[in-house]
Amino acid sequence: MIYIVFVEPESPGNIGFLARTMKNFGLTNLVLINPCELKNESYFQAVHARDVVHNAQIYDTLENFLNIAKIDSAIGTTGTAGGSYNVARIAITPEELGDSIKYQGNVALIFGREGNGLSNQEISLCDIIVSIPTHEYYPILNITHAAAIIFYEVFKREKSYPIDGLEIATKAEKESLIIYIEDIIQKLGYPHHKSRNASLVFKRIIERAFISGREAHTMKGTLRRIKIRIKEKK
User: Fold this and answer.
1) Which segments in the chain show pLDDT lower than 50?
2) I need a labelling partner for 152 at 20 to 30 A (CA). Which of 69, 141, 181, 191 fits?
3) What pLDDT shows up at residue 17?
4) Residue 199's CB: how many other CB atoms inside 10 A?
5) What pTM was computed for the model?
6) What is the phi/psi pair of residue 160, to 5°?
7) What is the 3-state secondary structure (H, E, C) of 189-208?
């Protein structure tokens, strides 16, 4: 199931516009985090997507929603992508998201506030970060414009590609890989801040990668042997 999450919307009209954009792409599960008051403007701007607004789920914090809804993959959006020294905000483009993401389980596509987007703490809750390349003269897009671009890139190739005999790695299998990698990093004796950054980098790579169950099994076996060799060296 795909949830479209709008964190602390400030304008009732933007809620309606987002609902309308969602329905253009067959999306109906709208989640509002600590929103402004829903008014007639929300329903007016939604046009034929009034049902999306009416059925919207409301939560007090993003973290509560992710836990209660048992989200398997949280995809955050940002207008201020990071670089080599801002690991938490290293982002992919919507096209890269569309090329790589396979929607298994519960997925949340998260949009931030109209004024200042998602906070660093909220970004840290996300498995993947997406940013739209824009001109430096006016880099920040209206939320509904950004949503339309991302929805298009994600769904232009259809919503699923069934392949006979191919089993996609589950969230549990990916988490198992991450645990092995983090354990190996800890054994390498890095300073704390370097260990933390390395763990975050590998976590993001694993989360955004398309991995089959067989590939995950092979990687896990290799990581297990690495752990054994490190132990033997000691």
Assistant:
1) 161
2) 69
3) 96
4) 19
5) 0.69
6) -150, 155
7) CCCHHHHHHHHHHHHHHHHH
